[in-house]
Amino acid sequence: MIVRTLSEIEDTEYDVRAETWRSRRIILAKEGVGFSLHDTVLYAGTETAMWYANHVEAVYCIEGEGELINDETGEVHPISPGTLYLLDGHEKHRLRCKTDVRTVCVFNPPVTGREVHDEHGVYPLLTESA
Predict the structure, then answer these.
(1) Of the chain's two ends, which shows fewer C-beta atoms within 10 Å, N or C?
(2) Are 89 and 61 in contact (CB under 8 A)?
């Protein structure tokens, strides 16, 4: 059994920061459960381009307001608490944040915690044994 709190992972290798977001990675590949779970905050007034070519991601908004832009179709979807989006087709997308947007994200395959977006918004496929 794993029991973990956000406060205990802050400022550890589980707490990853970039220019437009902060991701507290609660469950990682090394736990060996087949997915990773993240508490991520994307900052107000920012726009983050992403493309998970190697992962499927489910994103559930729990705080904030923003817009999800599907860069492949041009569709724009409002994001607010209670909204979920699933990137099951590896869609290139952007999240434009009106306020800080806090999400709970699940990745499959799980991330190791060392990934950062490359110039195309892609996480590399890194593996790690449990």
Answers:
(1) N
(2) no
Length reported for the chain: 130
Which architecture does CATH list for 42-113?
Sandwich (2.60)
pTM value?
Answer: 0.88
Whether the CB-CB separation of 108 and 54 falls below 8 Å is answered with no
Q: Locate the domains of the chain by residue range.
A: 42-113
Walking along the chain (130 residues) 10 residues at a time, the average pLDDT comes out as 95 92 94 95 96 93 98 97 97 97 96 71 61
Q: Which residues of 43-63 are buried (b: 16+ CB within 10 A; e: fewer)?
A: beebebebbbeebebbbebee
Q: How many CA atoms lie within 13 A of 114 on its CB side?
A: 8
Give CA separation, 96 vs 7, 14, 68, 108, in Å.
27, 24, 6, 24
Cβ atoms of 118 and 77 within 8 Å: the answer is: no
Cβ(63)–Cβ(82) below 8 Å: no
